[in-house]
Amino acid sequence: MLLKENRLSGKEVKQVLRRGKVFWGSFLSLRLEKTREADIKNSQIKSGFSVIVPMSLSKKSSKRNFLKRKIREALRKRIHGRKDGFKGIVMALPGALQKDYKEIEEEIDKILTKAKIFES
Question: Structurally, how many domains does the chain consist of?
Fold first, then answer.
């Protein structure tokens, strides 16, 4: 589970969905919004993430929740070594339910690298 400081509130999720830039993977997508540099320096804003698995993937909540837990765990492991000041939403796309944890980790690495939020 992500720490509270690394999770988005409902208001922030709506904001990112409206204004965020999308990075596509094969079965996951990342919608990302960067916080202004002045805000980051003044208040030490941490990056936050949220995970969305739509009902269109599965009507069974147990399957959706299991996928959410796998995605959150992969995100949690990658929180260190990334830049602060980002708000992101990871959305599952068709085909994500059939993937195992290792494939999800690789896809998240690929999307986060494409979005350039790892520190270099």
Answer: 1
